[in-house]
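seq as requested:
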Amino acid sequence: MIDRERLILNIFHSRATTKEAKLQIELAEIRYEMPRVRENAKLTSGSTERPGKGGMGEYTVDVKFRDLKRRISIIKKKLDDVHQKRELYHQNRSRTKMPIVSLVGYTSSGKTTLFNLLTSEYKETSNSLFTTLSTTTRSFRTNNNNNNNLSGESLLIDTVGFISRLPHYMIEAFKSTLEESLGADLILLLIDVSEKIEDVKIKYQCCWDVLDDLNVDRSRVLVVLTKFDGATISTEPVKNIANDLMIPNPIAISSKTGYGIHKLKTMINTFVSSQNLAKEDLKIKAVPVNAE
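struct tokens:
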């Protein structure tokens, strides 16, 4: 029988496809293993000492520990290299001045389905946990005619989903992946309303716990109620859910039927345009006034 953490790691391992995701999984697995090394050593004490002069050999558990720490250092170095390359890519992308929108939410909340709909992509979707483990970025049109974004194009980021009671070392392992998504101009927090209200509330709070832990600015977060087509409740109770959870300006959508998608694009345009105006205003205020 395996514990919950091992089960999550097994799922992670089976779904990792990119180099970064695989490195992060390996790092998480090592951190999972480390506290168990000494426990195993206690159970097998008496036969874990390596030969040495006068019986003062090195214990196998110490050798194992040192090997695990060495592997952690190597993986961190590789992750740093990946992170630096991603930073360069991010800087180049920023020069285009295209607004960046990211999708976050509990695992299986419909992030990738919405991502596919908005970007015309064909990323794998499933009701299984953690179908998406790596970050994907694509451009998408929002049919915006506002002068602050003439092309109507933005960049959309899809990344790994959250889960409740995720051990801290696992969050740390995936922190770099989450940080790229959470640095967006607008963050769409997806909440599945097709589930029982008790589950909706628990998952909603879990998402905010993760976002707050990563110091996300709440003013950049727009809550989106997903899977509206599968909800067993009518429009009015959905509004009541929003009130119970104190969700400001929520929007209900269905990626399956297209319900609410046009309104979502309009809200994205409105937010992005207001952000652009604020940035321009700051630039104007930053211009020094020459004394006459």
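Residues 146-150, 286-292 have pLDDT under 50 and may be disordered.
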